[in-house]
Structure formats: C-alpha cells, structure tokens
Known about the structure:
The chain is α/β, with parallel strands linked by helices. 35% of the residues lie in helices and 20% in strands. Strands 1-2-4-3-7-8-9-10 form an eight-stranded mixed beta sheet, with helices on both faces. This is Related to dienelactone hydrolase family protein.
Amino acid sequence: MSISxxxxxxxxxxxxxxxxxxxxxxxxxxxxxxxxxxxxxxIHDLLSWNFPNLRLLANHYARETGATLFLSRTSSAMxxxxxxxxxxxxxxxxxxxxxxxxxxxxxxxxxSLRSLELRTKFKNVSxxxxxxxxxxxxxLGGKEQSPLVDCxxxxxxxxxxxxxxxxxxxPVQILAPEIDTAFNAELKLHSFQTIPKLGIxxxxxxxxxxxxxxxxxGDLNHAGEREAMIRGxxxxxxxxxxxxxxxxxxxxxxxxxxxxxxxxSCLLCTSCETKFNC
Length: 278
C-alpha cells in the first residue's frame, strides 16, 4: 500500500510557531506546554516535524488541553524532499516505505516511548498522529507493546492492517476523511465492527467531502478542508481531556461514540439507497 499523493499537497497556515526545540529520550522534539504530569506525543506525517502547520497545531493541542506536548523528530533525515522518492501517480516506493517502517519502529522501541524518562516523568501519556504517524499509534497502544500510552488519536492512518486494529488495547479515536485510499472503506468498516468488541472506548469521527491529509493541511482552497481541520483539532482535544485527567476518567470508560459509529456503519452499508432507513 502506497502513501496517498495528498500528503505532499502543501498549504501553510498564517502564523509562525515559536522555536522551542527540546529533547525527549535524547530525541529532538518541538516542545510546548509545561504540565509536569500530563503529556502529549505528536507523531508527524510525511511533511516532517519541521512543517509549520504541525507546530501551530501542536501549540493549540497543548494550550487547549493544558498538557505538555512533544512533536518528536522520527529521523535525522525525515524530509520528503530528499528522503522519499515521490510521484503523484505512483506514491511512495516500496523501498522508501520499508525504510520509513524501520525508522518508526526504531523510534518507538528504542528512542522514545520505552524510555524510563518518559514513563516516570509523566503520569499520563497520550499520542496523536497522522498518516504513518497514525499507524504508529496502533503499535504504541497495541497489546504487543503492553501499551506504552494511555490513549491515542489517529488521523487518516496509513499502512494500518486488520491485525493492528484487532490488537489495539487503549482508548482509540479515529479521524477518518471520506476520501482516503490508505484508510479505505474496508478498513473503516473493520474498525467499526471490531473495536467496539474489544472492551475499550472508541470514538469514530467521519469527515465528509474531504481527503487524506486534510487535518494538517487545512487548505482554504479546498472546500470544507479548513472546517475539517478545525473540527479534527477540537475532536482530539475533547478526546484527550476525557482520558488524561483524573476528572475525565470514568470508572467504566464506556464508549463515547455510539451515535457516530452507527452513522459510519450506515454510511458504509450498501443494502439501501436512503441512509438511516434500513
């Protein structure tokens, strides 16, 4: 499966993020916020940790949740202009895809979330990510990892498999654009049918009329995309507020997305032409 060509259709927002470069587990990271207990890990998409939109979005996440946030660099060479041979028609080459998988695996297992520095310094840790960053979250929150994070929010995840979906073990939010060849209708339906049976809270957010990469791009020239970006940001903030602060942790942690899951199920249903009448 290749990465969507939408990933590199760049639109930069107004505003200049502050230059706050720190370290997390000896890994360079853009940092914002000063909460000593609650932490956000933001795993970037193909546009890299240097993309201004992601840093501006990181500022919003930290400010609106009251958490400390790290937008971590996943590779010293993570720059689409020279790392990834890209074509709008062919997507990312298999060699580049495997390289990215290995890079992210090393980042997850060796340089970040397994670090005692992270798990001892912060009481609660969440993770948000887009594209291959979204796929990484399912590994961080999966059974195999004895979950390294407390909850996740994945936007248009790329490379996600049915096995990844079946093994997620922490509260999970999925932000799903309608137009997405990477997180396609089959995977969307599998997520909806599988995750509610796992005994974990699940929030599925459907974004009609927009495509893969809308959450970091927010292009005013694409109808509805800026609105989707804002709605996506608000959804992430609300989700993490529920699970990262003691006041938001319920005893039973029931699902917060019954209606939205019903909507997606009906949307993907092919048994009738008039939705919600079956």
